[in-house]
Write a structure and sequence with these properties.
The structure is a single chain. This protein is α/β, with parallel strands linked by helices. The protein folds into 2 domains: about 10-335, 3-Layer(aba) Sandwich (Rossmann fold), CATH 3.40.50.300; about 390-630, 2-Layer Sandwich (Nucleotidyltransferase, domain 5), CATH 3.30.420.240. The chain has helices at about 1-25, 35-40, 50-60, 65-75, 100-110, 130-145, 150-155, 170-185, 210-215, 235-240, 265-275, 295-305, 360-365, 370-375, 390-395, 465-480, 495-505, 520-535, 545-555, 575-590, 590-600; strands at about 80, 90-95, 95, 120-125, 160-165, 195-200, 205, 225-230, 240-250, 280-285, 320-325, 415-420, 430-440, 445-455, 485-490, 515, 540, 555-560, 560-565. The protein has a 9-stranded mixed beta sheet, sandwiched between helices. α17 (about 495-505) links the parallel β15 and β16 (about 515). It is elongated and about 125 Å long. Residues about 605-659 have low confidence and may be disordered.
Length: about 650
Amino acid sequence: MASVNSRLEALETRAVRRRTQRRFKALKMPLNIVEFAMARRYLGEAIFPRQGTLLKLAAGQLDALTPYDHRVIAEWSAGFTRSLGSDNPSFVGSWGVQPDILDRIALMRERTGGGLEEFLAIIGRRGSKNFLGAILAADRLYRLCAIEDFTETFGIQRGKRLQIFVFAANRDQAIRNQLRDITNMVTHAPCFEGLVADASKGRLLLYTAAQRAARGDRLRPADALVEVLAAETTERAARGPAMPMAMFDEFAHVTGAGSTADSVDLYQAARPATRQFKGTGFVYQASSPWDRLGQLWISYNRGLALDPATGTALNPEIGLVQLCSWDPYTDWEHAPDIEAWPDGPTFPAKAEPVIAFDDYMARAEEANVESFGTEHRGLFRHSGIAYLKRDRIDAMFTGWKGRDLTNQSDGLLSISYAAHADPARSGDRFGYACGHLEDDDQGIPHVIFDEIAYWSPQDFPHHQVNYMDIDAELQDRIRRFKIGQFTFDQYNSAGSIDRLNDYGHRPDRSWTTDAYVRDATASMNWKMFETFKTALGHGLIHAPADPLLRAELEALQYDKGRVDHPHQGDIQTKDVVDCVVNVVWTLYGDNSQAIFDRLCATPVRGSQPAVLATPKTIAPPKTLTPQEQLSNTGSAAVRRIRSRRSTTPARRLSRTRYY
């Protein structure tokens, strides 16, 4: 009797194995990543319409785009524009998507048969970065599990395990966040039933369908050929594995503290492992932004860079989005009317968005604009000790008395101008600025810049600045502008000053120009920068839009009692800023305090813009007098009402939901 029972059990086991093997003959592929995310037979996730657009872009699936997707992409694309007149052209902006992202995807599909090789999701907090990353990883895992032979497909050693690495500031963070989302999604998805070998802390192991078809229930976790692993944040961990996908979670915050690698070293160690998977290798960098340092900032700029010769993408393999926390949930109320893919179902109804820009968010932004910008608006900051506020800088370039400001070629005889030049070492940039005073309707003098200019070594033969050529151009400027005072930085300026004074004091000239050195002592520099900062806070400085000047202003740092440029990152100069600050000091000088006090006492009228409360510096040097500590003035100024970006909901689409 026992032998009969044993025989029956063996027959039943073989029958189960045959059924299992038949069930895992092949995995049915979804039409696109949104079907994979939404359909109950796959992941069964209820996604928002704009999350669907993001997934299609990241996966490079142009055929899945709907008219709604194209409208959203057009809206996002408007956030970036091409820079003009630059030796290093790029897209410029701080919100949206690269305007040529669809062209990039089409080009990469033509080159490799796949889509983008890298995707940067730079989105504010609670913007579903990990959720989207989990769907992208699950889609990649499902497609890997459907491959019969990795050796034949990828040319790797037979039996070698494919690994998706998840990196974060440390391994525990990778386990808690991105890996947990992937594990939860995969282990609860019907499409992965029978494929999960192990889901212990720190890793997820999967069998392929071919393995299950061949060996059924005889497989053990050690046999699994696909793995998702929370990796140590070290260069050594990133080297060696066969890695079809690398995920970098909150990558802007990977700084290399202690024994961990910094983001640049980590990326450089991991990237070659994904490149061997041509057409399928993928890097997902997701983060709310932080400083303009590290690999996320480098990749961001590489993704925006354009070829100077053709104007096309210099690195077409990189796609990126830069969005506010609430942007992925826009149009949530219209979800049941929006088609998920061409001729497909509509999105599921939503009760509310995950996050929205409401009164609470508005108050949080009002309380700390810069912090809110990095946390929720997806804006990079230059430094934790930034000297100037972004909204003050923005206001400087908004024009004057209803007109846009541009560089002028000639001045007016009725106006007296001031100029400053910052000579450089022959291999560095030479800066110049010229401006004048002009009263507003209340008789308050504003500084109006007539020209912002600089000469780069690349403008000269052998990439060496030619001072004689520049001096000739400066002489031409004091011929065309009635420049009374022309100041210079003390470095390498003696020859230029002598030549300009010889020209400026010629008897045949209608006016005299005095060129002289302004000694840049620590006390004088602090006084000039604080005067500039206070004037900027009151909205008294107006200049033509200049990308370098804006970048240098945004990069200024307050550190140990002095204002300086960063010593790492893309912007490591303040040549043009120094010129602007010196011109402001020449025009205002010791009268600045009286001007600021008068401005604070002036009532706001209907046609007069409210002045900005003067920003307070972290801590001025102890040796300065109260008069020099000008950034504390203006406490009675009226708070400016800031404008906020609003989005226009898409038009309702008449669709029948059948999914």
